[in-house]
Amino acid sequence: MDFLVMSNKIKDELIEIRRDFHRNPELGFELHRTSQKVREFLEREGIEYRVVAQTGIEAIIRGKKPTVKEKTIAIRADMDALPLMDKKNTLYSSKELGKMHACGHDAHTTMALGAAKIMNSIKSEFSGNIKVLFEPAEETVGGARPMIAEGVLENPYVDAIIGCHVDEGSPVGTIGIKNDVVYAASNPFNITIYGKGAHGASPHKSIDPIVIGSNVVVALQTLVSREVSPTSPAVVTIGTFNGGTAQNIIPEEVTISGIIRTMKLEDRQYVKERLVEITESVVKAFRGSCKIDIQESYPCLYNDDNMYKFFHKVASNTIGDENINFVKDPTMGVESFAYFSLERPAMFYWLGCGNKERGIIHPAHSSLFDIDEDCIPVGVALHCATAYEFLNNN
Known about the structure:
Blueprint: H1 3-9, H2 11-23, H3 32-44, E1 48-52, E2 56-62, E3 72-78, H4 105-121, E4 129-135, H5 144-149, E5 160-171, E6 175-177, E7 180-183, E8 185-194, E9 198-199, H6 209-220, H7 222-227, E10 234-243, E11 249-250, E12 253-262, H8 265-285, E13 289-294, E14 301-303, H9 305-319, E15 324-326, H10 337-343, E16 346-354, H11 375-392
Parallel strand pairs: 3-4, 3-5, 5-16, 6-15
Antiparallel strand pairs: 1-2, 2-4, 6-16, 7-14, 8-12, 8-13, 9-11, 10-12
Helix pairs in contact: 1-11, 2-4, 4-11, 6-8, 9-11
Organism: Clostridium punense
Protein name: Amidohydrolase
């Protein structure tokens, strides 16, 4: 089947859906309109679904072709926007002040709907099941976790899962693929350092938390430079340092916050432990005290080796091997699809959406972000072809 031809036949419909989502962005789990629009589409197409994770949706298409052993593949799309002002001058710019689809989730949702429409129309041509998972809160706490907890990977059991993210740095019509680790694990942290306040002219009467905090910041830089292998990517970034109210007052406390990003489970655990040890030791040496909170955020995203090889073959047949970029290095960004990848064999790819001639060059999470909408049928076709081949031939 030529899924690219089939996807282009509904391209105009999908562009209108994407633009509607773009005009009406919603955040986190508060995706009431977005979720409603997705449900309305599924109902029109006669696709069964259920609501999960507050505003998330699990849809299922049941193939009609007889089979000895039934398999199930899932397609995942995230739906939420970002708290950002849309500064584009387009017909579909955001109507919601301070909210914007600046990461392409509107396109991801649209592509999943397009794939659902096509695969539902040919369900007599494949066996097994296709689940389409619409995830809320990817940009915040990760809607994947409550979706998994509510059983979206069960009944029927999901054998594999695919997902994608638009990439403005790659030309429309191309994709990027990588095996093994694709995205980093993240651990945000907060440190509060307690000292003793005093007049700025009498520092000897204080235990200066600003000085202590400054030494902590410097000491933490050795975590990556001297304690993690240079061949294993890791990042410790201090994002905020706050304390004090006036030039002549030594405050009683300061707060520091930042992130840890790692590519290996062992590095993740090691860096967390050493951050606590280093911070407590430095603070104690300067006679202060501290409170440390390290949060468990997204894990590493792993592409399964067999799924990677399988998807490469499918993508090559769908868009041509010349349009596939083989990515060597993982990104230090994070992606909540990682939770799914820890549960089932997974494949996550990047979908080119950039177009320099049309000025579509601005990075994700920026107020001018946009996509070349020609990428939508490409993503739909790849979703469809992967599901079809997995269920019938893999």
